[in-house]
Design a protein that fits this description.
Layout (H helix, E strand, L loop, with lengths): L1 H12 L4 E7 L4 E11 L9 E8 L6 H19 L4 E4 L5 H10 L2 E3 L3 E2 L5 E2 L2 E4 L3
Parallel strand pairs: 3-4
Antiparallel strand pairs: 1-2, 2-3, 4-8, 5-8, 6-7
Protein name: N-acetyltransferase domain-containing protein
InterPro entries: Acyl_CoA_acyltransferase
């Protein structure tokens, strides 16, 4: 366990892969997590993007709640990681999340994110840079 904690501490110091818990303010109960890392790629358009992964308990997967979370986390993440390009996967079936991301200003990317194994991953939304 100590090795795991040290790993996360190092990742945090390096602005690498960082994971945060999301707590319900009403009862201090964990309702999800979000993870972020700055991606380096030579094979797709997602080079130097912050990749945001948002995992929420299904009863909190409502557009207004997701939008509220985005309003809380995006600006600090841009500042901490010194990167304004953000992408997050939003599957077509998740209409609540899609609505929230679009209301925040994210737009759907039709370019695939290409993994280390050359697999193409679709359904990413990106936040246009200023």
């Amino acid at each position: 366990m100590e090795k795991a904690i040290n790993y996360w501490n190092e990742e945090y110091k390096l602005n690498g892969f960082v994971r945060f818990s999301i707590l319900n303010k009403k009862n201090n109960e964990a309702i999800g997590t979000f993870e972020i890392f700055k991606r380096v790629s030579k094979v797709d358009k997602f080079n130097n993007f912050l990749i945001l992964r948002l995992d929420l308990r299904s009863d909190f997967e409502k557009s207004q709640i997701v939008l509220e979370l985005l309003k809380i986390i995006i600006e600090p993440l841009v500042k901490i990681f010194a990167c304004s390009k953000i992408a997050s996967k939003v599957i077509p079936e998740n209409t609540e999340r899609r609505k929230a991301f679009q209301n925040y200003g994210f737009i759907q990317s039709y370019s695939p994110l290409i993994g280390d194994n050359d697999q193409k991953y679709f359904n990413y939304f990106v936040l246009p840079t200023n």
